[in-house]
User: Which sequence fits this backbone?
């Protein structure tokens, strides 16, 4: 794969950082994920249960990483991770600003030790400003960046997006920055401090509407629109409409073309209005026309006239979509005796989906092999495990995270 020569040490949890390192691992990087003795937070995130009682939040960004469980607050634990960093190209972390520095693993600490390091920090709020002390999370950032407000169709009636899209986007942006820094390192030998944040990613996702709004500064009442309309800044009928038997998404299309395609006198009567200034009127008329027709009839008419449209699928429809199958969007994978459907890496390289090389599920699953690579003897690893400096899944395969927490607190 493309990044076979890249070595990454990851201090990441929840989704932004794990998504970033999963992209890198998918592309071939050797990613070692550092976890505390009790495992990282996303393992305990509970929503819908998956086979084997695995957290969906963990499982969505777990692949192609080796797992090392270590107590970073112990001197010997820090020695282990510093030895890994000495051999690495990249360090990735997504803690709140200042956490890594307090552990003696901040950018300045690592740069002094290894000047050519690529150190990637994925924070919530960035590295400066009044919000640094506050926790951040996708939903909070959706609210703070205006995305919720713009998604709702009335001002002061915000609506969130049905996915942690900012976390995922921030992870992709951070991976992009790391790859760019890696090219720089390979060509100049120089390291880079790459900084990404959920806050900036939330604005990056809204480049088009923010460019329009911040340049013109209309009243926020412009958000108020007919509920069929998906955005405030496109002309009608850009949105979602009901046919008599199904929902349909219709993009920006000239009104006269829509009137011709549907042979509609109602649409011909408004085809000369300004489709943005009178967007609500256009949406209402268009909705009334589609409501009287079946999806198949409308689709056939739109196909004949080159209209931009598409069906609204729910997840059951997605599961049976032939385009999904053709593109290998999902990967059936055995997990703890059950089968889950993972979302594959989004890109294709020479026509191929990146392989799933490593399924890192158990806390400390690769602790022993990683320490062996660093030159630790079996006896030394046994000693570190016995003193809870590290945890190895091979030693206590049935131990719960609560049991491990008690061991750590009892040290």
Assistant:
């Amino acid at each position: 794969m493309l990044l076979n020569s890249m070595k990454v040490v990851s201090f990441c949890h929840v989704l932004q950082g794990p998504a970033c390192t999963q992209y890198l691992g998918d592309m071939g990087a050797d990613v070692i994920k550092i976890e505390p003795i009790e495992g990282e937070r996303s393992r305990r995130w509970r929503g819908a249960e998956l086979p084997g009682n695995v957290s969906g939040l963990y499982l969505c960004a777990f692949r192609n990483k080796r797992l090392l469980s270590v107590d970073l607050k112990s001197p010997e634990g820090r020695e282990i991770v510093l030895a890994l960093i000495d051999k690495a190209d990249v360090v990735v972390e997504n803690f709140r600003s200042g956490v890594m520095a307090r552990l003696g693993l901040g950018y300045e600490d690592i740069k002094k030790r290894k000047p050519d390091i690529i150190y990637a920090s994925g924070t919530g709020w960035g590295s400066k400003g009044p919000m640094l002390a506050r926790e951040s999370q996708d939903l909070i950032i959706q609210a703070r960046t205006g995305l919720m407000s713009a998604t709702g169709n009335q001002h002061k009636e915000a609506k969130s997006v049905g996915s942690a899209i900012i976390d995922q986007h921030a992870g992709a942006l951070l991976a992009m920055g790391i790859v760019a820094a890696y090219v720089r390192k390979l060509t100049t030998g120089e390291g880079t401090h790459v900084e990404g944040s959920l806050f900036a990613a939330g604005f990056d996702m809204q480049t088009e509407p923010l460019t329009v709004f911040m340049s013109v500064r209309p009243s926020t009442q412009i958000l108020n629109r007919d509920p069929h309309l998906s955005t405030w800044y496109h002309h009608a009928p850009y949105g979602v409409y009901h046919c008599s038997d199904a929902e349909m998404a219709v993009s920006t299309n000239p009104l006269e073309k829509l009137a011709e395609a549907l042979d509609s006198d109602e649409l011909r009567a408004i085809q000369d209005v300004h489709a943005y200034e009178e967007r609500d009127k256009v949406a209402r008329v268009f909705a009334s026309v589609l409501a009287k027709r079946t999806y198949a009839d409308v689709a056939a008419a739109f196909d004949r006239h080159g209209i931009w449209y598409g069906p609204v699928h729910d997840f059951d429809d997605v599961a049976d979509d032939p385009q999904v199958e053709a593109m290998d969007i999902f990967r059936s994978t055995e997990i703890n005796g059950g089968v889950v459907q993972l979302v594959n890496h989004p890109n294709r390289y020479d026509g191929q989906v990146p392989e799933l090389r490593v399924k890192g599920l158990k806390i400390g699953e690769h602790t022993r092999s990683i320490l062996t690579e660093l030159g630790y003897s079996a006896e030394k690893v046994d000693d570190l495990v016995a003193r809870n400096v590290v945890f190895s899944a091979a030693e206590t395969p049935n131990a719960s995270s609560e049991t491990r927490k008690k061991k750590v607190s009892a040290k």
Residues 7-204+351-409 form a domain with the Rossmann fold fold (CATH 3.40.50.10540).
